[in-house]
Amino acid sequence: MRRGPQREEPYRINERITAPRVRVIGENIKVDVYPIQQAISLAREQGLDLVEISPNADPPVCKVVDYQKFKYEQKKKQKEIKAKTVKVVIKEIRFGPNTEEHDFNFKVKHAENFLKEGSKVKATVTFFGRSIVYKERGEILLLKFAQALEEFGKVEAMPKLEGKRMSMLLMPKAAKK
Predict the structure, then answer these.
(1) Which H or E run includes 146?
(2) What H or E segment, with its residue span, contains residue 147?
(3) Which residues form the Translation initiation factor 3 C-terminal domain (predicted)?
């Protein structure tokens, strides 16, 4: 019966540690530099493993712990770090160069809600056919949009034309504490 490839462990433990001398830390252990065999026997006496946690130190630092518990705690720390990262959401609002006042106000209200939620807002004016000759209308529309939302967000990227689209990015203002 053949198994898949063995996964490489992220930490070296016990006999896999290659350094001749290591600094040993852990509970009920005198922190000191020991020869590798003595360090492994210290860990075994307590029914634990010797785990190399800092291989680039001189001498490498090893900890006397239960390896399975150590791996579990490391995984838990990684999950916490991942959960704390901020996910940036960008909501897009589209206009035509000849957007009427009512539609404009309707879209401003939506953008206001998006900014209050903490999302960034990308406002885009799309020019169809020959309406590209009115690109200044699109720029005026975007600047008016930014002005209408200035108490909720600030302009991160000024209006710029890319092909037949002109876009601008607004980011929410920091929440008042």
Answers:
(1) helix 135-148
(2) helix 135-148
(3) 88-173
Side-chain-side CA neighbours of residue 150 (13 Å): 6
The CA distance from 162 to 159, in Å, is 10
Structure confidence at residue 177 (pLDDT): 38
Q: Is residue 156 within 8 Å of residue 176, measured between CB atoms?
A: no
- For residue range 88-145, what is the model confidence (pLDDT) as tens digits? 888 999 988 888 899 999 999 999 999 888 889 999 999 888 878 878 888 889 999 9
pLDDT recorded at residue 176 = 45
Peptide bond into 172 cis (omega under 30): no
| 171: β partners | 154
pTM: 0.52
What domains are there in the chain, each with its CATH number?
14-80 (3.10.20.80), 90-172 (3.30.110.10)
Mean pLDDT of the chain: 86
